[in-house]
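Re: duplicated header lines in exported structure tokens

Our pipeline writes sequence and tokens for each protein into one text file. With two proteins the header for the second block appears twice in some exports. Here is an export where it did not happen, for reference. First protein block:
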Amino acid sequence: MTPPTTSCDTAPKTGKVRRAALAVLVGAGLIVAATPADAAPNGGYAHRTVTAADGQTFHLRLAAGPVVLPSSGGTVRVAGTGYNRAQGIFLAFCVIPKGVKVGDPSTYTTRPTPCLGGTHPTTPVSRRITDADTGGGAPGLTLPYQEGGSFVTTLENVRPEIADGVVCGRTVDCAVVTRADYTATDNRLYDQYIPVRFTS
């Protein structure tokens, strides 16, 4: 897959997109209706519309929740739709790079890293989502896309310490992230961020 030619973000600008993203959250069981009705749910969303070099347009929507976790960590459920099934992605919990302004894809010029390590299939903190023939991939870690370039999964044991001295909310800001997998590491087309914070 060649690098993108056009990228725009419309989520902060339209109530319609916000409602659609929240519908993804509710439909995936990531959140329940807020009480009272105008309260903010404990979920986050991201959306961008991109046009690839081959002319195809993709409306990438990502939803995750909860996005406020205890300091001991927790599980985050994640749902996505509209992704390009011809390009695999990584889903992970990573540091937001310096210079990246979440919601402004024009600033998504640096690969999100470092990311929380650990690939045990029963408590995965990262996933690869791809339709490529990987020989089954890593059991429990590699998942196929569903219809419409969608997926629903979890990131387990999401915790604030990404690495020694790299602590979310103290030294860095962190987010649930999608990005192109190792077949297109330098392609920023599929970068999306949903910030997560931890209570003290």
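Second protein block, exported in the same file:
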Amino acid sequence: MVMSIISPKAGTAHNCQKKGHYSQQPHRNKMENHPEIPQQPESISQSRTLQVDFTWKKWKALISEKDDPASKPVYIIDFPFKTAPSLVVKSAADDSTIGTGTLRPISINASCELHGSPIELTAQKRFKTQYTHLSHSFSDTDAPVPMHWTSSSGFTTWNFICLDQNQLPVAKFSASVWAVKKIGNIEFLGEKAMSDAARDEIVVTGFTLYCCMLLRCNSVLSLFGAVFSRPGHDDKGKLGS
């Protein structure tokens, strides 16, 4: 899984898997057109952007503020050589664990843990990047709200877009298809753009989803998992209280 992070493929698992081989040559996904994304109201329009870089020497991903390249990383992502978790997101300031992501060899769903609370990334389609999870960080009440992930792909980028319960974009992870070190950027939008809690959630869930789709593009087991899955019927997306 870690090696796929260095050589991502554009598109969905369907396009990668149904041909029976897993080429290093990325391609445009014909099934996923660039979605029409609603714009945030101008009165609450805010944004911040993080950049994701991979270091071969330390085998880690470093996430820092894009507008301040000289700044120290905000997050460090480790990729343990064990079954679970598949990735560990840590605070670069104090090395504390922010969250983890766990990929499954067959199931097309993925699991996360954010500050000790479980989050389930649940597939809504078999062969398209369409996932949901429940969020406390984006809720204005004590009850979690559903968040929706989709994607669009091009020749150079693979975009993972997170929409809130009102179908407004709150984040976009733009992964570079041809990158060796500079994996991509994570842009935060809307009234929660400056929220540290929302930032933590997007980094953990977004990077887990990215790695999940890379695994699906490279694994024949994931193909069988997609064929026999029941998207939308076995949703276990629960957050810890």
